Amino acid sequence: MAALQQCGSTSGNVVGISVPITSPNTVLSGFGHDGYGDHDKVACANGNIKITQDDNYPLIGVGNDTAVGIATIQSCGSTDGNVVGITIPITSPNTVIGDCQNGNVEINDSDDWKGHDGWQESGRAEAMPASLAMDKARQALVKKVGALKDRDAWGKRANAKVAPQARGGGWDAPWDVDPFGLVSALNGTSVLAATLQSCGSTSPDVISLAIPITSPNTVVGDCKNANVKIDKEGPKGLITALDNSSLNILPLQSCGSTSANIIAAAVPITSPNTVIGSCYNANTVID
Questions:
Q1: CA 46 to each of CA 7, 65, 102, 147, 202: distance values in angstroms, whole numbers, following the listed order
Q2: Does 6 have pLDDT greater than 50?
Q3: Integer Cα distance of 200 and 221 in angstroms
């Protein structure tokens, strides 16, 4: 709750004022690994949640493996103010090289996504080489022919006693059935409210003022805000309600823009806003 991040930015929050003069703010991702900045890496991450769902099934399960984020706010390579804030940077550029991620949620199936980035495409198994496949098929055929020629084995099989089969249409024994709950509600669910991101922008929010003067805002990377990815599981109870669901209230993103939200004013003077990358806001995938 109330996760706030200012990353390579000029920002005034909760009755705050910021007036930098010839004082640039800069964040470079991957420093010390791939040189001075890498736009393919995450530079600023705030309030992101990743959960692997438990495969245990309680008799009554409510709110298990559930993510809740409220007032998750990020300023990334931007000039902004939040909740009665004033920012007036003068010749003070804000620059971030790398991705900006805020308030994203990933809830994964208990059987999948092991050591795997769930936002990327799932891995594919490589096909077996043709020569190896032929060898395995030949060995299996030889084994079957040998079994047919073994008359002693056939005699033993004919004299063997057959175990009684379970009746009732093929029902499994109780100990062979996967555990199952009685009531399951709001499990593996995401609830987000007021997830705000200013990315390479001039964007004051909630009774705030931003006046950058010759102070450009630049982000070289992607901006991701309030995105939800849920890998849906089967029912965990006899009675289920709102499992593997998503509720997203007021996700706001300003990406390479000049904007003012909820009684605010933005007055950039010779201060361009630039994002070299993509903008993702409040996308939801449940599969």
A1: 10, 20, 5, 63, 19
A2: yes
A3: 10
